[in-house]
Amino acid sequence: MKSHAPDPALLFKAETLAEALPYLQRYAGATFVVKYGGHAMGDADAAEDFAEDVVLLKHVGINPIVVHGGGPQIGAALKAQGIESRFVNGLRVTDKATMKVAEMVLSGAINKEIVSWIAAEGGRAVGISGKDGRLVTVRKVQSEDDLGFVGEPDDIDTRILDTISKAGMIPVVAPIGVGPDGETYNINADTMAGALAIATGAERLFLLTDVAGVLDKDKNLLSDLTPVEIAQLRVEGVITGGMIPKLETCIDAVEGGVDAAVILDGRVPHAMLIEIFTKEGAGTLVRLA
Length: 289
Ligand SMILES: Nc1ncnc2c1ncn2[C@@H]1O[C@H](COP(=O)(O)OP(=O)(O)O)[C@@H](O)[C@H]1O
Ligand SMILES: CC(=O)N[C@@H](CCC(=O)OP(=O)(O)O)C(=O)O
Fold this sequence. Notes:
289 residues, alpha/beta, 8-stranded mixed beta sheet, 10 helices, 21% strand, globular, binds adenosine-5'-diphosphate, binds ligand 2
């Protein structure tokens, strides 16, 4: 197990711990929702750094809530079983057989793996999905093509999250919800994280992915964006693919009361701490203005 003593020189760009202290204490009591994407879960070192960061946040009085993805891992498991996957607007068409595999991968494998990483760093995590404690009740996503068991959060009951956080533990949530009649639904992990950030009154939403943040047409990092600027980038065709729903989630979050949403590279060591505790920051920060 690594030491949790923060290295002020490395992490906080401060000369002394005293200089770093105001940064550390600034967010005490706040809730941060951290979405760890399937693409960001690269190697073991990245996972260890991620878990270490989450544990450190808890140590300094922040309530981290982890929401994880697992798209590539679900894809691999489906392929191994000879089940074809199809996406419509970035959402996986989910029939009963696909849902079974997705739940096995998300709730059974990835969720518990993240709980183990956090335990290895000295933290206490509780792995759940949106079904537990009826955390997330969904409505079926309506689309021209029937997407099957794909849901979007309709009603969120945060009591289970509050209970876990207040007990000094870290909730780790798989992007699965319960339908009105108790059926299991697949939810896009970004959407799930955004909805939980709004429902918990989170101060920050972090979306950890596999790029440095939002890049402009010359591939330079855009460090700050407003919803108006995002709309402009979409018109210019600079934002495509998976970045579109990601930024829509950020806009929904900040319009829903989250102070800022940040897209950053989960493969970079301690990217989240650098963003939170240094003046330079990391990734792309989305704010209302
Ligand atoms: N302007 C842009 N800046 C950065 N990434 C972009 C941009 N436009 C599209 N992308 C794509 O969005 C991807 C991130 O979305 P996605 O693959 O859905 O992430 P995740 O699996 O982590 O949720 C990047 O890897 C990149 O290929
Ligand atoms: C409905 C839907 O598409 N659900 C996603 C849930 C996982 C996810 O979103 O994972 P990433 O963040 O790693 O992409 C899926 O089945 O892939």
